[in-house]
Every structure is written in structure tokens, then in C-alpha cells.
Recover the amino acids of this structure.
């Protein structure tokens, strides 16, 4: 249910729990540093409630059920790297809260092609202005990453490799509006912690590993 519309952001890899991306000149480095960003905005948008706004919910919901799709949107504020810095990897980390069944589920992460307003975004509109080009969110055509066949339990941190998206944004060749998470068509409901979650450690993070 993702990949709705045209977008220009670069594509990343698959879900991973490893660090290090070997970008640019590659090969790793001494003194690798990690920077953890917290989400600047996030929200769930609902096909069944196309005008409704769920930007203040403590959970992000994703569903692939026909006629009742739920998409989760997340964005971060990205600062320039130090002049001598090189991005080695970027990982989107999201904490799983609950799943509707033990059946393996697939979550896909798509680069957004439009900014959104957390307090106004809906299935129909990214903000108070014009509508999405395609209802449910404008994104790149192919996913940046996916979690094929996950059977993770509640409390598990899902980690997606979005290095290419972040690298393109830092290089100025693309604008990073954030990401849209969607589920495969057989998945009824996956709930993830939002930036309003009670535990700060559960909230969405973007972890950047930088070589000085």
C-alpha cells in the first residue's frame, strides 16, 4: 500500500541490525561517532477516516487491510555534517508495540515526496493546503527499506537502513521530508511507539554514524 506517488529521494537497503555503511570512500575509520536524532514530527493517517488527524497519538499504526489502510509518517530535522565528516550509515529505529497476529509481517519504508504538518496531516492532505497527489501519501516509487517476514515481539526495536536517503539529503541532491511506513496486504495491524510515547527510549530515532 506504499509507493503511492512520484518522489525523487534515493533508495536505501533492507532492514538490518548492523552498523556501518561504508559510504563515499568506504572502509570504515577510526573515531567513528554516533549521533541520535529524535523525531521532529510523526502521525498515523487512516483510509477509513480520510479527514481525521492522529498526530498526537502515543502509537503509530500501520495496516494493509483493504479499505482500512493505515500509514505512519515520521520526519527528523537533519543538520549538516562537520566539514570533514563522512556519513557511514543512517538507521531508522522504531519500537514495536503490538501486532495483530503471530503471522510474519512486512513493513516497508518509503521516502516521502512532500512535507507534512503533524497537527493537520490526514489521508487526504499533508497539511492545511492542497491534497496529496495520491491519497495516503506521496512517496518514492520503491521502498528505501523493508522488514520482510518479521515475527518480532512487542518491545523489539526494528531498524531500517536509510543511509542512501540521508546521504542524498546531506549532499543536496534530494530533500529529506521523512518516511512513510506501510504494511503488506495481509497484515491487519502493527502498532509502533510514536514520539509521544511515555518512555523516551521507545520513541522513533534516526541514528547517524559519522567518520570524522
Amino acid at each position: 500500500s506504499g509507493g503511492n506517488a512520484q518522489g525523487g529521494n534515493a533508495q536505501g537497503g533492507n532492514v538490518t541490525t548492523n552498523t556501518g555503511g561504508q559510504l563515499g570512500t568506504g572502509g570504515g575509520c577510526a573515531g567513528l561517532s554516533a549521533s541520535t536524532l529524535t523525531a521532529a514530527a510523526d502521525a498515523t493517517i487512516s483510509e477509513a477516516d480520510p479527514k481525521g488527524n492522529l498526530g498526537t497519538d502515543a502509537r503509530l499504526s500501520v495496516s494493509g487491510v483493504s479499505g482500512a489502510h493505515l500509514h505512519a509518517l515520521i520526519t527528523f530535522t537533519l543538520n549538516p555534517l562537520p566539514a570533514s565528516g563522512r556519513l557511514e550509515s543512517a538507521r531508522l529505529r522504531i519500537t514495536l508495540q503490538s501486532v495483530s497476529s503471530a503471522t510474519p509481517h512486512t513493513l516497508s519504508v518509503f521516502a516521502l515526496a512532500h512535507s507534512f504538518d503533524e497537527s493537520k496531516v490526514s489521508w487526504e492532505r499533508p497539511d492545511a493546503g492542497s491534497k496529496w497527489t495520491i491519497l495516503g501519501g506521496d512517496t518514492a516509487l520503491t521502498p528505501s527499506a523493508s522488514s520482510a517476514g518479521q515475527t518480532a515481539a512487542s518491545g523489539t526495536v526494528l531498524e531500517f537502513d536509510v543511509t542512501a536517503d540521508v546521504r542524498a539529503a546531506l549532499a543536496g541532491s534530494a530533500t529529506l521530508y521523512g518516511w512513510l511506513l506501510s504494511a503488506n496486504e495481509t497484515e491487519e495491524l502493527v502498532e509502533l511507539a510514536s514520539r509521544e510515547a511515555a518512555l523516551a527510549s521507545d520513541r522513533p530515532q534516526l541514528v547517524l554514524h559519522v567518520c570524522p
Summary: The CA atoms of residues 109 and 181 lie 5 Å apart. The two ends are 39 Å apart (CA to CA). The first strand starts at residue 33 and ends at 38.
